[in-house]
Request: fold
Amino acid sequence: MKVLVTGGAGLVGTECCKLFAQQGWEVMSVDNYTRAKIFGSEGQTKSNMDNTLKEYNIEHHEMDIRDEKISELVKQADAIIHTAAQPSHPRSIEIPMEDFQINAHGTLCLLEAVRAHNKDVPFAFCSTNKVYGEAPNYFSYKKVGKRLEPLDPSLKDGFDESLRLDRMMHTPFGVSKVAADLYCQEYAHLYGLKTACFRMGCITGGAAKAVEMHNWEPFFIKKAMSGEELTIFGHDGYQVRDVIHAADLAKLFLEFVKAPRPGEVYNIGGARRNSISLLEAIDLIEEVTGKKMNYKLGPEREADHIWWISDISKARLHYPGWDLRIGLEETFRDIHQALSRA
Ligand SMILES: NC(=O)c1ccc[n+]([C@@H]2O[C@H](COP(=O)([O-])OP(=O)(O)OC[C@H]3O[C@@H](n4cnc5c(N)ncnc54)[C@H](O)[C@@H]3O)[C@@H](O)[C@H]2O)c1
Reply:
């Protein structure tokens, strides 16, 4: 069996390449290392691929997902995991055209290649909770200890997939991802492709390349290790995120590939169990690194969520063999170890 992983050098792509290889799959990866162009050399992902190639016998293609030659790989695939993206919502405000071309047009190019050459292949799309734009910010929250919590008790376990998508701000990233997400759904409904969209909260892990505009967890830890001042944007640090290790996400994609449910959408993240406010994260990072953090508060970012926890009950119901395995502390320690080695 052969899997095609797009964005194979990225955070999620790396864990997918490794997991599928460990499970005995042949792995084809496509990544043009454009992350270094989007974020500068600190955000590069080539070193992830160099490490993966040392450990695993996978086939890597330095190629753009929009390149017509990708059809040759699509034809051979028994599963496709599409992780390649411009992944940052603040960065998309500066580069809306590139953001659209990679996220929306790039996904459409892949879907067309699948429609033309391999209609039955399971296709997992990495969507995002940013498709919901600012919708979470229209709810009311109160401070509880060092975090915010919703006033509405029905939100205790987070937002499910019924949250509205439109009539508010998204940033260009949210919009390009909504387009790609809806294209994936449409190609299931209209052409019968086996696509599903996974709308993630914060994904992280040792393969995350820390820059201020993407992957806050390793960025915070890097600041703790260097002693440099960190800026927390908006909400005085009380904003809540839910964090999933990319290795746990890769396992869900494996379950999906074994039993695809075409046209589905799933909210995925660390759920209530792995939820954390930025102030709580500072405490955890100080414990993990043994260093006192130095931070200041900055202005709120556009369309940034005040509170997000993914209600993952639908994914758990459809894929009972899957669940979150990696806790917050283990995840933060994994990142700290990876940064200590770098
Ligand atoms: N990391 C998160 O917190 C998070 C949260 C929600 C959703 N997501 C989504 O999950 C997916 C994976 O995220 P990630 O954190 O692994 O991102 P990442 O930036 O680490 O990896 C993406 C990879 O795609 C590559 N790439 C970009 N454009 C390409 C193109 N045109 N052709 C070939 N390769 C290209 C990049 O070089 C990079 O290596 C993305 O779709 C992202 O939007 C991520």
